[in-house]
Amino acid sequence: MILSELALNGPEYNEDDMDRKTKPLIDEFLHNNDFEEAIKCVTELASPNTVHMFINAAINQVLERSSQARYSLGQLLSSLLKKKIITFDQYKKGFAVVLEIIEDYALDIPLIWDYMGEILEPMIEDIETPFKLLKEVLQPCAPSEKAGMLVSSILHCAAKRKGTIKLGEVWRESGLQWTDIIGTDRNVAEFIEKHKLEFTVSPTKFSPQIQMSMEEMTPTEFVEKN
């Protein structure tokens, strides 16, 4: 069976069963990096009603693993979306549980913003009109400073591959405004300068932060104290 013919047809697992069955699937995928096999396994594991639980379980499984593991999961989820095996609403619902309580996650995982950014980054690379869709994905935590920090992380991850010039063009063409992400009560210019996002508002601005690895950034660059 070719991938274009695949559809979600798994059992109606409960959350505990889905968590348990997701682990070996993701472990095997990260070991062999076989996207076709992983996609086939997802269609056999999840149903349209349960795939959001698979997405949530997979996110939690890779959060504290390697940067490559998080990016690879993001690629897998983006592939499922691009191939129309999952809908955007299912994709969005899978991220919602984490995003709704992302500040609680940050207490134990200070670099949660970076980690979620690595998982969401492939959507920016692979999907048409990515920033409009990203705004919808972030609804559980936007508009807020926290949503802005997450978008900042996604952009800096993506800029390492796409470059700031191209990425800035895509951002500006989307029509998305920083006030949509951080709210109208925030100082946008200050936020842009603080997070080195000048390339989103001007094609001549360069952000040196994209040259830094995730390991080189300090947690305080992304974690705000109340």
From TrEMBL:
Designated name of the protein: Eukaryotic translation initiation factor 4 gamma 3
Keywords of the record: Initiation factor, Protein biosynthesis
Gene that produces this protein: Eif4g3_2
Any one Gene Ontology molecular-function term assigned to this protein's record: mRNA binding
UniProt cross-references to InterPro entries, sorted A to Z: ARM-type_fold, Initiation_fac_eIF4g_MI
Superkingdom to which the source organism belongs: Eukaryota
Domain MI: residue ranges: 17-139
Pfam families in UniProt: MA3
Matching SMART domains: MA3 (SM00544)
GO cellular component term, pick one: eukaryotic translation initiation factor 4F complex
